[in-house]
Amino acid sequence: MKYAGALRRVLNDGVSNLGLLSAEHLRTLRRAAHLICGVPDYDAYVAHQRAAHPDAPCLDYAAFFRQRQEARYGRGAVRCC
Amino acid sequence: MKSNVQVALWVLVSAAGALAFGILALHRGESVSAVWLLVAALATYAVGYRFYSRYIAVDLLALDDSRPTPAVRHADGMDYVATPTPILFGHHFAAIAGAGPLVGPILAAQMGYLPSTLWILTGAVLAGCVQDFVILVLSMRRNGGSLGQMISDELGPAAGVVALVGVFAIMIILLAVLAMVVTKALAQSPWGTFAVAMTIPIAVFMGCYLRFIRPGRVGEISLLGFVLLMLALWGGAEVARDPSWSAIFTLDARTLAWLLMGYGFVAAVLPVWLLLAPRDYLSTFLKVGTIILLAVGIAVVMPDLRMPAITRFVDGSGPVFSGSLFPFLFITIACGAVSGFHALISSGTTPKMVARESAARFIGYGGMVVESFVAIMALTAATALEPGIYFAMNSPAALIGSTVDQAAQVVSAWGFVITPEALAAAAQDVGEKTILSRSGGAPTLAVGMARILSNILGGGGLMAFWYHFAILFEALFILTTLDAGTRVARFMTQDMLALFSPQLGRTQSFAGNVIATGICVAGWGWFLYQGVVDPLGGINTLWPLFGIANQMLAAIALTLATVVFAKAGRGRHVLVTLGPLVWLLVCTLTAAAEKLFHADPKISFVAHARLVHGALADGVLLAPAKDAAQLNQLLVNDIVNAGMCALFAGVVVAMVVFGIRAVRSGIPLADGSMKAVRA
Questions:
Q1: CB–CB contact A40 B174 (8 Å)
Q2: Are residues A28 and A58 in the same domain?
């Protein structure tokens, strides 16, 4: 019985750790996928804007995305051979 | 204790690598397992990364995490963002990965797997990775300055202008050769043509969705786009089956070339959100996903390499490209060993996002390690094919004829025995009418990939699907390069036009836009069309020009780095960039000289021009020309190609002269950080 309890605890911890890890991993993957397309982390932008320029307006996500799209492709994008 | 374990581990890694190289080099027989190629590659990369990149990071560059990076100093939440290293690695790799490492090794496979393997691995570890890493750090130390800017600062403004001309010329050749690869892959293939054509409406739909329906939701629309892409692939099979539809999408190379020029023009003129950007999202994800899929496929299937270690074509008489192993192998495989284009990426957006200086090692050096591994995978896929099929696919019709009987006879006579039935069956397996003379690398890779992937997913029945999937994957990101690159070239042209007419230089001006884009498309379109009508297949002429140009750009980047280290007094450590620079100069200039002055008209543009000129004077016809006008056209082609070659050689020599002058006369170091040697 003693072992069953310990086993359950280990399994519980394992599963919840797995959940935590994968949520974090998914966020990293999502961030990486966006950055591959030239869209940096929006949350980081908002955090920066709040901290550095509290009085300046903060772009909403749609405007942020458009701005990034134009910055990346406006003058063409060097793609490798 | 721990250090003993580490020493033992690295001894083991090195021994495994040495063993693998030994087996690859000494093996004589039917085939050798790809596992040895992979072990040799991974061991070389591991040792190179662990020891050499560490030496560069510590002794040459003196990376110092206490020095804030531009991402920290200029943080703006947009361009300058301190980004976790794995995420930035993904961004950087996606930007440097392209068609080059997939095509070059396939063309070079005509000399056997061994020379290509040795060059890809040593080239990457000692030159390519070094260039990417060093340029990334130089740019990072200058607030993310571009390559052109750094050259202007360190070598003088005149050097900056020369470099700009060089970059523009390589851009034009790159776009032409990539368009050529797509043309070769899609000609007479209704399935592939339909699927690739469908990517245009799919991209426009994605663009509108991202603009108006759910702005900025890249992930969901890319997934939807991928589903539509697979539908297009399925539709392509139906199109190929239906006689009337298949007639519409069965196009010859000339028509495809004109369509590509039209596409490139329109895509570069339209607003970027409509076509260019969404196509880039789709192609980037597909590219990264397929590379991972291929790696898994090779690891699971572990095919045997059927190509001999070394073939007799090292003497320069090969059908895929002319010219002997030295110097032509070293310019045919550019990307994957060392690619000048990466210097533009390493001094682009990546340096503005590096969070700490030491992370540049993993991103710069490590990114190129993975790119080089992509080249090894392409080589594996190509050399795992029966050599007979490889040569039938990659030799021009002028050499092997246009029927399976003729091709089998010629290729077998070269010593790579193959039956006409096997050639016909290979075409039927992948759902094509013929696989003969499909040069350009993409179809060969597609057949190789189809064989590997159908081994793990779907079996032989899905071979045709995988073949067209691979063609679609390559065509998709090549077309992205085509429109994005045309746009880059357009802005460079407008900057130059501005010198003559400020009106045309205004990038908002519609006339300026159309004229500049037209000039660029005409530039690459001219080389593309010339290649398409060339009976030797075009790749023969264009790929060496492209290789010379790309290695020239690498030489320019390494010159910059060498000058900076020399000025900063880094002593013998300068050899880290000076060594690869000298090697690239020797290869590029020898190749350029042979392209100009070699006696063999198959190799030299000038010798060929002389031959054509003689034929014109004597009033005789020379194959493939059917009349005097075509002979004249051949002459013009030769002269232009020779001119391009001379231009590339001139640019690289000029850059070296600028470099020596900058060190001697002491143009001051624009950034002093390299002088700070770690205590």
A1: no
A2: no
- The structure's pTM equals 0.94
Kindly state the average pLDDT of the residues A47-75: 93
CB-nearest partner of B90 from A35, A38, A71: A35
Is residue A80 scored above 60 in pLDDT?
yes
What is the per-residue pLDDT for B679?
A: 31
Compute the average pLDDT of residues B49-74.
Answer: 97
Question: Domain count of chain A?
Answer: 2
Greater confidence (B306 vs B508) lies with B306
Same domain (yes/no): A8, A28? yes
ipTM: 0.91
Q: Are B618 and B571 in contact (CB under 8 A)?
A: no
Closest A-chain CA to B493: A75
Residues in chain A within 8 Å Cβ distance of B335: 80-81
If contacts are CB pairs under 8 Å, which of residues 16-75 in chain A contact chain B?
A: 28, 30-41, 44-49, 52, 61-62, 64-75
* Contact at CB, B484 and A39, closer than 8 angstroms: no
Give residues with Cβ within 8 angstroms of B152, minimum separation 6: B159, B160
Interface of B with A in 566-625 (CB under 8 A): none
Strand partners, B83: B354
Q: Residue B674 has what pLDDT?
A: 77
What is the tens place of the pLDDT at every residue in B261-282?
999 999 999 999 999 999 999 9
What is the distance in angstroms between the Cα of B362 and the nearest Cα belonging to chain A?
16
**Could you give the 3-state DSSP secondary structure of residue B233?**
helix
Average pLDDT of the segment spanning B558-566: 96
Residues 298-357, chain B, touching A (beta carbon < 8 A)? 334-335, 339, 341-342, 344-345, 348-349, 353
Do A44 and A77 share a structural domain? yes
Interface of B with A in 105-164 (CB under 8 A): none
Characterize A7-36 residue by residue with b for buried, 16 or more Cβ atoms within 10 angstroms of its Cβ, and e for exposed.
Answer: eeeeeeeeeeeeeeeeeeeeeeeebbbbbb
A32 and A51 share one domain: no
Q: In whole angstroms, how large is the CA radius of gyration of chain B?
A: 25
Report the gap between the CA of B507 and the closest CA in chain A (Å). 9
| Domain shared by A48 and A18, yes or no | no
> Mutate which of B74, B106, B217, B281 to test chain A, going by most A C-beta atoms within 10 A?
B281
- Digit-coded pLDDT (tens) for B30-46: 899 999 999 999 999 99
**Residues A30 and A14 grouped into a single domain:** yes
Residue A73 lies in domain: 40-81
Burial of residue B546 (number of CB atoms within 10 Å: 0-12, 13-18, 19+):
buried
Dist. CA B371–CA B99, nearest whole Å: 11
Instruction: Let me know: does B77 contact A45? Beta carbons within 8 Å.
Output: yes
Residues A19 and A1 in one domain: yes
Instruction: State pLDDT tens for residues A28-37.
Output: 889 999 999 9
Does B272 lie at the interface with A, CB-CB under 8 angstroms? yes
Residues of B in contact with A64 (CB under 8 A): 216
Strand partners, B32: B305
Smallest Cβ–Cβ distance between B96 and the set A30, A31, A80 belongs to A80
C-beta atoms of B546 and A81 within 8 A: yes
> B580 by DSSP, 3-state: which?
helix
Question: Are A44 and A15 found together in one domain?
Answer: no
